[in-house]
Amino acid sequence: MNYFKQILRFAKPYKSYAILNIISNIFYALFSGLSFMVLMPLLKVLFDKDTEKVLIEPTFKSFTKAATYFNDYLNYHISLLADNDAAKALTFVIILILTVFFLKNIFNYLAMYFITFLRNGTLKDIRNELYDKTIELPLSYFSEKRKGDIMARLGTDVLEIQHSFLSILELLFREPLTIIFTILFMLTISVKLTIFVFIFIPISGIIISLIGKSLKRKSDKVQKEQGYFLSLLEESLGGLKVIKGFNMEGIFNKKFQDSTKRFFHYSNSLLNRTNLAKPTSEFLGIGVIGVLLWFGGRMVLVVGSLESEQFLTFMGLAYNILTPAKAISKASYSVKKGNAAAERVLEILNIESPLKDKPDAKDKSDFTSEIAIDNISFKYEDDLVLKNFSVKVSKGKSVALVGQSGSGKSTIANLVTRFYDVNEGNITIDGDNIKELTKSSLRNLMGLVTQDSILFNDTVKNNILLGKESATEEDVIKALKIANAWEFVKDLPEGINTNVGDSGGKLSGGQKQRLSIARAVLKNPPIMILDEATSALDTESERLVQVALENMMKNRTSIVIAHRLSTIQNVDEIIVMQKGEIAEQGTHIELINKNGVYKKLVDMQSFE
């Protein structure tokens, strides 16, 4: 229940629907009990063969005799209306019964109608906040988590909460109210018989709770396994070329089948335990009905302290308790399953992002002087990737970072854009520590072209517009031309309105990269970060893009992370990195003349 207290905050905007649902449930519970009480006059009409009746208006004596008063009161007025005509009396009684059942079902529908808005609204808001939190969390969080597990939490876990949320409202209002009203009506018929019902409820509750104790644990296993095989599916689809190329279909098939086998066992265990609730509660219910038939039958036939129509009505009311009692047991099971789902969802919602904007963080709208990376150290896990690294990039200047893989080049890009925070030292823009700026304003100052060309399953135009949503079609075409992408885009079946497929799968690597560059060009930021932007290009595309990049970098501050050294010969400063530290720095000519690390790297690459 602790988790549901936190989930309840999502229901607050829909509290009016909750109130209307409760009101409808009160009337439903009332008419549910009355639907059996109004059967008494019908039974009286059917069983009583005495045609000569003395019409005496009944008087109310006590609560425990209220059923007798209710029966006599209805019979008195029905007899007056029917003028002692049994056929007419039967018609009036049937109309009364139909009216009560009609009202019962109208309020039942209204209760479900209002709760639908509450459930679906809560579901929508949980999903929205969960997605919002998911894209807000730092990249470091997702390096440890499986994508499939996150997808399972957004999908099936949230749905489980939605169903459990309905169950808990039934548990709190609908079913208990039905039981309370029914017991009140039963007390007006016979206090002795009602005592048996009070004995039945706690006994069945104890038995059902014992059965349901392990449900949360079993449900948690099911949900975790579901997250695992969704992740495996996502990885398989993403790496299909590698799987087929290395003939690994059998290995991945086995992994998936092992997962679905575990899911099969966990699900069987969970569902069998859940399914035990219905037969258990039904058997307990029939047991108490049997006791009531024996004891109540004696009160009618032997003692004579109970009228036959009252006894039959009481039996109907007793049976009316079984349905909500079974619903409560089912709801309590559902709540236990939902508790496991809520725990998994709230695990994400309750995480405090270490990169969250400070309350007094300021918006920075322009870049005027320099980016200063001052004596920073950083590690992803245990070992330092950067050690006491310092560099300054003045406005309008371009700096290239080169070095072997793992030397910390791309880490600089991740830190400047604040995808991660430094462990030691500071990064400032115009003297402002980037931790003191809002992430949104910081990233608005920067354009990013990554090593992996990240495109979305949408049109060319919409992929480019991510750089600047308000741009016109002419602006998009201009950006494509600067990135040397227009030459192939204009020949696509629908031009800029052509869908690029999942992850840009319909395009070549070079084409995808040029679209990524066009997106950065359209944004037109004062600072450009190119993280091995030309590494995926063929020689011809590289030449085309290199001219575009050089044009784009004019009068613009650029940090270029380069693998191909031929692309960075014209930058203002080259920094050679080794194991997270600066090995050399200077212009291309200066570093060649030094005949050091940079010269060795250049000699290892052939230039055309």
UniProtKB/TrEMBL annotation:
Q: Which InterPro entries match?
A: AAA+_ATPase, ABC1_TM_dom, ABC1_TM_sf, ABC_transporter-like_ATP-bd, ABC_transporter-like_CS, P-loop_NTPase, Type_1_exporter
Task: Report how it sits in the membrane.
Answer: Multi-pass membrane protein
Instruction: Kindly state which keywords UniProt assigns to this record, in alphabetical order.
Output: ATP-binding, Membrane, Nucleotide-binding, Transmembrane, Transmembrane helix
Q: Which residues form the ABC transporter domain?
A: 371-604
Q: Which molecular function terms from Gene Ontology are attached?
A: ATP binding
Q: Which residues form the ABC transmembrane type-1 domain?
A: 19-337
Where found, per UniProt?
Cell membrane
Keyword Secreted recorded:
no
Does the record carry S-adenosyl-L-methionine as a key word?
no
- Chief location category: membrane
Q: Which domain of life is it from?
A: Bacteria
Q: Where would you find the membrane-spanning parts of this chain?
A: 20-43, 89-118, 171-189, 195-215, 283-306
Name listed for the protein in its UniProt record: ABC transporter ATP-binding protein
**Record organism:** Winogradskyella immobilis
Taxonomic classification, please? Bacteria, Pseudomonadati, Bacteroidota, Flavobacteriia, Flavobacteriales
